Amino acid sequence: MSKPDPKSLPAAAPFWMSVVMIPLVILAATRGGFWWLLLPGYAWYLTTAMDGVLGLNENNPDPEAELSQLFWHRAVTLIWFPLQFLAIFGSIYHATHGGHLSGLEQLGLFFGIGVLSGTIGIVYAHELLHQKTRLERWCGDLLLATVLYSHFRTEHLLVHHSWVATPRDAVSARYNEGFYRFFWRVLRESPVSAWRAETRMLARAKRSIWDRRNPFWRYAALQLGMLALALVLGGVTGLMLFVFQAFVAIWQLELTNYVEHYGLTRRHLGDGRYEHIMPRHSWNAAHTASNWLLINLQRHSDHHYKPDRRFPLLQTYDEDEAPQLPLGYPAMTFVAMVPPWWRRRMNPRVRAWRRKFYPDIEDWSAYNQGNLPMPRSAL
């Protein structure tokens, strides 16, 4: 059987499975009850079950494919902001004016919408903010504003990709660090880290923090606009529901961040210098269905190794080059919420990774505690 033309919709169709969640929002909003359970059920449990049936996809596309061949792959990320915008704000108006949803049903609905905006929206924003076109970057900014996490763009591009698996990166989870401790640490440290990164760039260009080029003013304006719209459409209840879905989305993002780099560290070369980022510094997962839903985010080793590579072209690696997760992200993030269970599953894998790639390092205590020197250029 011949392979589908990469320019055709069938080649990209599996990556459109996220769009199924939009009618699920409509069902939950109009019918109430427990219909909201369809959203996490689809994104988390059905996808995990499909992973079990479909197994791994270890095929690698041609990384040199032309941009023109990826029209339908790009299209799903570009249409997502208007879809998510309508899902969030349409549901705010419907829930606060329809009179048919109880308080608990409203919370259930917006928990489900948070699953949508976190599982899909932030993942798509991540893909878009890595691109060079103005349209894609703006769509990424707008998606992040709908979950009140706009600083993620700066933190991800200027800090995480440069300093992943070093003490400078707040979202590189340390060995034996439970998710809840990690989560509150990231909420404290990431906005400050992002602000410092932008202000350092402005200072090097001899510009003030008040300069219009400081993206934090855009971040603030977009987020305030989203909050104001929620208030206008749904009053105080609408505003609270909007903030609740944003929290659910952020929770999922940081669960994913936790899984992606847990316990993995770059070798300290002395004097604040660290080895170059390699595929072995991110957990890789080749599970088929969850990579469809998350547009190959689980090919995370290649994303960090080649961050400019678009999602359809990301490569997967075998265990000789990158550590492998036993399950896809939807299942692993569930495990991460139970720290003793997580440590039982993952700590032996981290120790095996250390023996495989760094057999000469005997004392890991400074790595475990995050006490190594900050990278020199990040001081």
List keywords for this structure.
mainly alpha, 2 strands, globular, 379 residues, iron
SSE inventory with pairings:
Blueprint: H1 9-12, H2 21-31, H3 38-54, H4 71-78, H5 80-97, H6 103-129, H7 134-145, H8 152-163, H9 179-204, H10 215-261, E1 268-270, E2 273-274, H11 288-293, H12 300-305, H13 329-336, H14 339-357, H15 365-369
Antiparallel strand pairs: 1-2
Helix pairs in contact: 2-3, 2-5, 2-6, 3-6, 5-6, 5-7, 5-10, 6-7, 6-10, 8-9, 9-10, 10-13
Membrane topology: Multi-pass membrane protein
InterPro entries: AlkB/XylM, FA_desaturase_dom
Family: Belongs to the fatty acid desaturase type 1 family. AlkB subfamily.
Structural summary, described in words:
The chain is mainly alpha-helical. The protein has one domain. The protein is 60% helix and 1% strand. Strands 1-2 form a two-stranded antiparallel sheet. A hairpin with a 2-residue loop joins strand 1 and strand 2. Helix 2 packs antiparallel against helix 3 and helix 5 packs across helix 10. The longest helix has 47 residues. The mean pLDDT is 94.
